[in-house]
Amino acid sequence: GEDVEQSLFLSVREGDSSVINCTYTDSSSTYLYWYKQEPGAGLQLLTYIFSNMDMKQDQRLTVLLNKKDKHLSLRIADTQTGDSAIYFCAESRSGGGADGLTFGKGTHLIIQP
Amino acid sequence: DSGVTQTPKHLITATGQRVTLRCSPRSGDLSVYWYQQSLDQGLQFLIQYYNGEERAKGNILERFSAQQFPDLHSELNLSSLELGDSALYFCASSVGGTGLETQYFGPGTRLLVL
């Protein structure tokens, strides 16, 4: 199976909170990231969390990490039309060597007016 | 704007051909990573260079190669191109070489192989 899993789609109403979920399998993951990709654009780093943290808040964004269940979530408060994008969860692993990020397939966030 | 630049933005070529994609990292970053984004495979790590040396290899095909030059820019060479190589190719950079530092992505090069 995949190392990082995400739901493919999430639809929310404008003004509501969006919660995008991600599960990962590698317990040695050191950092977990959320990236945003708008249509035709590159990947924008939104936020990241170190694996010894449970929560991180950054303005409208809240990241929750449940290391026991290997579950990561991104909450976007007061979702706006500009938040419409694909959101990727990614992990980087420790182990003494360098490695690239392992990404989920991405969650398409659809905003309903 | 992440500070990572990639050229060209778009590339159209034919099967069997060879192309070179270029990436300039953010000022001060020593590591460059290459990723491929396709509809069926998603985002996959290809290769990483740190200060001119290859540091890590991911799912990179033998037909593909990369290098990092003394000025730290990097090139990804794709040869004997196949239809399935059509994808968005991203470059990312980070300060260090452990793979644990935050990676900043460029806008990508969209490759279409006909």
What secondary-structure arrangement, pairings included, does this model have?
The complex is a heterodimer of chains A (113) and B (114).
Chain A (H helix, E strand, L loop, with lengths): L3 E3 L2 E5 L4 E7 L4 E9 L5 E8 L4 E4 L2 E6 L4 E6 L8 E9 L8 E2 L3 E6 L1
Parallel strand pairs in A: 2-11
Antiparallel strand pairs in A: 1-3, 3-8, 4-5, 4-9, 6-7, 7-8, 9-10, 9-11
Chain B lengths: L4 E3 L2 E4 L5 E6 L6 E8 L3 E9 L2 E5 L6 E5 L5 E5 L8 E8 L9 E2 L3 E5 L1
Parallel strand pairs in B: 2-11
Antiparallel strand pairs in B: 1-3, 3-8, 4-5, 4-9, 5-6, 7-8, 9-10, 9-11
Strand percentage of chain A: over 45%
- The percentage helix of chain B is under 10%
Main sheet summary of chain B: 7 strands, mixed
Would you count the extended β strands of chain A for me? 11
> Total helix count of chain B?
0
> Strand-and-helix sequence of chain A, N→C?
EEEEEEEEEEE
How big a fraction of the residues of chain B is strand? over 45%
Radius of gyration of chain B: 13 Å
Question: Count of DSSP E strands of chain B?
Answer: 11
Give the distance, in angstroms, between the N- and C-terminal Cα atoms of chain A: 36 Å
Low-confidence stretches of chain A: none
Give the helix/strand class of chain B.
mainly beta
Instruction: Tell me the number of helical segments of chain A per DSSP (H or I, 4 or more residues long).
Output: 0
Assembly state here? heterodimer
